[in-house]
Amino acid sequence: MTQLLTMARLDPDNRSRPFLPVDMTQLARSVAEDLSPIAEQKHIHLWAVSETPTVVVANEDALRLLMTNLCENALRYTPEGGEIRIETLVRDTEASIRVCDNGPGIPEAERERIFERFYRAEGTKTIPGTGLGLAIVRRVAELHGGKPSISEGIEGKGVCFSIDFPICKAAVENQSSAEDE
After folding, report:
1. Does residue 68 register a pLDDT over 50?
2. Phi-psi region of 105 (alpha: psi -120 to 50; beta: other; left: phi over 0)
3. Which pTM was predicted?
4. 98 beta partners
């Protein structure tokens, strides 16, 4: 029920929360730290990998939900001893978040449908879940001008979810100026 309410709150007509500059690098570190007890319990190495501030104009709570959903999904399917990496990158006019793992991956034939509400890939129906987590990821991405994509994960295993967002150049320039002083 909570995830259905989340979907309703993320409706484009219901954008009551402000969009402000958000450093996705700091947010990724925070999400990794929040989920580290679950990862440790499953003997999974979870960490945030980022070199520079990655700033977008966004709703911070919604971006946290996006990253958390992707990481929880990876934690659900990555086997014991696996690896999950959260990356933030800046390229030209885009800032990207990527959550990559070395779990079982998603068959190519199912990748188009994986972001649909209530869709559960074959072989996952015995694992607890509602089929809403990735639909929420897509909705959050779209609200921020982004679109999720899927590629191969770590060392050709697993899956890597990527979302590219328009970059907040003014915030990055302000951050660079502050670091130079």
Report:
1. yes
2. left
3. 0.81
4. 87, 162
